[in-house]
Amino acid sequence: MNDTKIEWCDMTWNPVTGCLHGCEYCYAKKVAHRFDGKVFDTSPLPGGLHVLEDRPPWPPYPYGFAPTFHRYRLGDPASKTKGKTIFVCSMADLFGSWVPTKWIVDVLDACLAAPQHRYLFLTKNPKRYLELDEMALLPLQGNFWYGSTVTSPSTDYFTWSYTFNTFASIEPLLEPFGNSYSDQTRSLGWVIIGAETGNRKGKVIPDKAWVQEIQEYCRENDIPVFMKDSLIPIMGEAGMVREFPWEGGCRA
Ligand code: SF4
Fold it and tell me: What is d(CA 25, CA 68) in angstroms, rounded to the nearest whole number?
C-alpha cells in the first residue's frame, strides 16, 4: 500500500493492476509503462492475464498495463492496524469484464479481513457490481464504497443501488450533464468531480457552469460533493467544496 496525492483517500492499494478500457486520457497506463521492464512477459494466461505469486524484485509493473494479479499484496491491509481510507486498485479496473471473478473475490476477502479500513472501489463497468451482487459475492459493508467513473451523462449504470454505499467519480468531466439525472441518481452517496489533467492533445477543460450544475443537483438532493484540486483554476479556491460522506472521515 502507498501514500497518495489523491485528495479523497489516504492510501492506494493495487492487488490488481492493468486495464483494457483504453481511455485516451489514462494516467495509470503512463505510470505502468514508465516502470515496465517486460522482463517476465513470457506466457500470459488466456486473455493476456498475468498472476504474480511473489513480489518481483524489479520492475513494479513487469507486464506493463496488462491485467495482473499481485497475489503477494493481499495481506497488505491486514498488516496496517491504523484505519485508513484506501482506494483499491487505482492502477486497474478491478471490476472490468476481463477480470476473473476469483481475483475480485480474493481482493474483497482481503478487505473483509481488515475491517479497520474504509475501502473505495471504482470502475467503469458498474454492471459487474450488479452481476456480483446477483451471485451474492458483493459484500454489503458500511466501510465498502462502490464507485463508478462517469465522464458524460450517457454513461450507463452509474447509479445502480439503494442498498450499497455508492458514489460517482465524475473525472474527467468531459461534457455538461444538464438535466440528465434520473430518480435513481438520488441514491448516490457521494459525488467527486475533477477536470482532466496532463497535456493531452484535445484535452477538455470543463466550464465552471458544468461543475456548478452538478453541485446544485447534489445540494438539492443532499449528496456530498468533493471537488478535486484540478478544479481550482476553474472554480477558484473560494468556490471549492470538499465534503466526505462519512462522519469523522480521515480528511473531512
Ligand atoms: S478505466 Fe481508468 S485505468 Fe482503465 S484505461 Fe480508463 S483511465 Fe485508465
Answer: 21
